[in-house]
Amino acid sequence: MPAYSDPSSMYAALGTMMLVFGIIGVASIIFSVIIYWRIFSKAGFNGALALLMFIPIANLVMICILAFGDWPVLRELNYLRQQAMMRGQPQPGFPPPNPPYPPTPNYR
After folding, report:
1. Cα separation of 25 and 18, whole Å?
2. Coil, strand or helix at 45
3. Do 50 and 40 form a contact (C-beta atoms < 8 A)?
4. What is the pTM of this model?
5. C-beta separation of 84 from 93 below 8 A
6. Can you give the pLDDT at residue 32?
7. What is residue 86's predicted lDDT score, i.e. its pLDDT?
8. With contact defined as beta carbons under 8 Å apart, do 14 and 4 qualify?
9. Does position 22 have pLDDT exceeding 70, yes or no?
10. What's 2's DSSP letter?
11. Residue 47: Cβ within 10 Å count
12. How far is it, in rounded angstroms, from Cα 71 to Cα 68?
């Protein structure tokens, strides 16, 4: 009797294949949560909003908030830049202005 006609070996292969696919599925879900958690955290939102990415309509809403919303990190950066400008401090990240050119000699 050939091995492929034995139901117990077929069930064993099917069970092994389902186990492998299950492990890969769980690993990809965990990896997705970690990625979305980092994205939300770097944007200044609570990282737990990453869990909403697995709810069908909520994921579209969260992507729209990330794309078109005002990020808390950028709000804070703009506030700090305004405060620095009011004090007359140079803004970090920008080079200082060029010094004026030396006067050209007059050769008449």
Report:
1. 10
2. coil
3. yes
4. 0.63
5. no
6. 94
7. 80
8. no
9. yes
10. -
11. 16
12. 9
- Closest-CA residue to 66 (of 44, 48, 33, 81): 44
Q: What is the mean pLDDT of residues 42-57?
A: 91
State how far the Cα of 72 lies from the Cα of 44, in Å rounded to an integer.
5
Q: Name the token pair of 106.
A: 């007059």
3-state secondary structure 66-107: HHHCCCHHHHHHHHHHHHHHHHCCCCCCCCCCCCCCCCCCCC
Question: Nearest Cα to 40, choosing from 31, 30, 51, 29?
Answer: 51
Whole-angstrom Cα distance, residue 53 to residue 48?
10
Residue 34, H or E segment = helix 7-43
DSSP state of 55: S
Work out the pLDDT band at 15, boundaries 50, 70, 90. very high
Give the span between the Cα atoms of 46 and 27, in whole angstroms.
23
Name the residue among 39, 78, 28 with its Cα closest to residue 62.
39
